[in-house]
């Protein structure tokens, strides 16, 4: 009886083993069938990819960059000589014209030196006039033989020349003192507005005078401004000279202003790798203020060496940007750098060639080495 039970137990184990093996086989077959179906589905998807041709031509476009407005001309006003402030004709906000008197200084020693130099010049001029007249008379008399010796004639001429040199020296000194005297009156070097006044009558001032590290007066030209912006290195070669740009001012919403590209630095900033560009802005109504921040729409002429692809052909991952090129019926990732964008086209730079075929609507799900029919 026990023998029969052992035989039955062994038979049951054998049956269970066969059943398990059968189930595993069926599972593997099912997985292979699913994998085969998935591969076939992916293969069908690859066959349906749309391709575009890479072309070469410059792509004009535009970029938005931040900028700031600055006065077209700006100067700190200092006197050329030391003196006491006698009168100030302007204050903060005063509009002045070129040559208009801003302040008058008082320096008695400068005035005395001027009058002393004037007196010496007048004296020297009188001596020269006398010696010149004497020489001319002596010369006229010497025409009669035996009346004037050659030695006396030479002495008369030498005296005239010496007095002439002395007069010229005194005249130069007088002119210098005259210039110094003119420095007591400080005038505006150009049309503009006084934006700072840090001095008052009675103060002793000079060429190096500062009040709390500020200049005596600050003059700025406001009817014309400079819009200064930093253009990144990759766009600096694409700017067109004298092109018109549009910009908006953060403080004045709803208005668009225009200017003309007037100057480029011609060199890149070592720290930011950008080029300084200046745009002249007419501001006759003085609506814009120096120091305002702007957003500039900068037109670009594009790069003649750029290759163009549809914008949706560029894949952007966390590590890089690339396009998927089809070569010999297989996909290949090619790293690129983007340039200008316009409508649905993008400039790219990389190991691409004209007439290459790239995948449209590319994603990072499309791997390298996939066969494309």
UniProtKB/TrEMBL annotation:
<feature type="transmembrane region" description="Helical">
    <location>
        <begin position="15"/>
        <end position="35"/>
    </location>
</feature>
<dbReference type="Pfam" id="PF25973">
    <property type="entry name" value="BSH_CzcB"/>
</dbReference>
<dbReference type="Pfam" id="PF25954">
    <property type="entry name" value="Beta-barrel_RND_2"/>
</dbReference>
<feature type="domain" description="CusB-like beta-barrel">
    <location>
        <begin position="227"/>
        <end position="297"/>
    </location>
</feature>
<dbReference type="InterPro" id="IPR058647">
    <property type="entry name" value="BSH_CzcB-like"/>
</dbReference>
<dbReference type="InterPro" id="IPR058637">
    <property type="entry name" value="YknX-like_C"/>
</dbReference>
<feature type="domain" description="CzcB-like barrel-sandwich hybrid">
    <location>
        <begin position="75"/>
        <end position="211"/>
    </location>
</feature>
<dbReference type="InterPro" id="IPR006143">
    <property type="entry name" value="RND_pump_MFP"/>
</dbReference>
<keyword id="KW-0812">Transmembrane</keyword>
<comment type="similarity">
    <text>Belongs to the membrane fusion protein (MFP) (TC 8.A.1) family.</text>
</comment>
<feature type="domain" description="YknX-like C-terminal permuted SH3-like">
    <location>
        <begin position="307"/>
        <end position="373"/>
    </location>
</feature>
<keyword id="KW-1133">Transmembrane helix</keyword>
<keyword id="KW-0472">Membrane</keyword>
<dbReference type="GO" id="GO:1990281">
    <property type="term" value="C:efflux pump complex"/>
</dbReference>
<dbReference type="Pfam" id="PF25989">
    <property type="entry name" value="YknX_C"/>
</dbReference>
<dbReference type="GO" id="GO:0015562">
    <property type="term" value="F:efflux transmembrane transporter activity"/>
</dbReference>
<dbReference type="InterPro" id="IPR058792">
    <property type="entry name" value="Beta-barrel_RND_2"/>
</dbReference>
<protein>
    <submittedName>
        <fullName>Efflux RND transporter periplasmic adaptor subunit</fullName>
    </submittedName>
</protein>
């Amino acid at each position: 009886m026990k023998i029969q039970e052992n035989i039955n137990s062994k038979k049951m184990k054998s049956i269970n083993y066969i059943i398990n093996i059968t189930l595993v086989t069926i599972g593997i077959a099912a997985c292979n069938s699913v994998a085969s179906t998935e591969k076939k589905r992916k293969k069908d998807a690859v066959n349906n990819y749309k391709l575009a041709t890479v072309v070469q031509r410059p792509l004009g476009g535009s970029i938005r960059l931040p900028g700031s407005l600055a006065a077209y001309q700006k100067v700190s006003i200092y006197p050329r000589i030391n003196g006491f402030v006698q009168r100030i004709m302007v204050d903060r906000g005063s509009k002045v014209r070129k040559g208009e008197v801003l302040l008058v200084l008082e320096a008695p020693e400068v005035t005395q030196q001027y009058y002393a130099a004037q007196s010496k010049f007048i004296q020297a001029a009188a001596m020269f006039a006398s010696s010149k007249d004497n020489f001319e008379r002596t010369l006229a008399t010497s025409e009669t033989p035996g009346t004037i010796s050659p030695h006396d004639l030479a002495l008369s001429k030498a005296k005239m020349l010496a007095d002439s040199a002395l007069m010229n020296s005194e005249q130069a000194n007088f002119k210098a003192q005259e210039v110094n005297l003119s420095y007591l009156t400080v005038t505006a070097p150009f049309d503009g507005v006084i934006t700072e006044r840090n001095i008052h009558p009675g103060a002793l001032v000079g060429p190096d005078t500062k009040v709390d590290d500020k200049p005596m007066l600050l003059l700025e030209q406001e009817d014309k401004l400079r819009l200064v912006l930093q253009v990144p290195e990759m766009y600096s070669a694409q700017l067109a000279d004298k092109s018109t740009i549009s910009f908006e001012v953060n403080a004045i919403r709803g208005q668009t202003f225009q200017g003309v590209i007037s100057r480029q630095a011609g060199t890149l900033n070592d720290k930011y790798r950008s080029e300084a560009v200046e745009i002249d802005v007419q501001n006759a109504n003085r609506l814009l203020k120096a120091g305002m921040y702007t957003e500039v729409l900068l037109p670009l002429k594009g790069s003649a060496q750029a290759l163009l692809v549809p914008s949706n052909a560029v894949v952007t991952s966390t590590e890089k940007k690339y396009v998927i090129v089809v070569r010999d019926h297989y996909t290949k990732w090619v790293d690129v750098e983007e340039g200008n964008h316009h409508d649905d086209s993008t400039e790219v730079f990389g190991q691409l060639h004209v007439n290459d075929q790239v995948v449209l609507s590319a994603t990072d799900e499309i791997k390298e080495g996939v066969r494309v029919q």
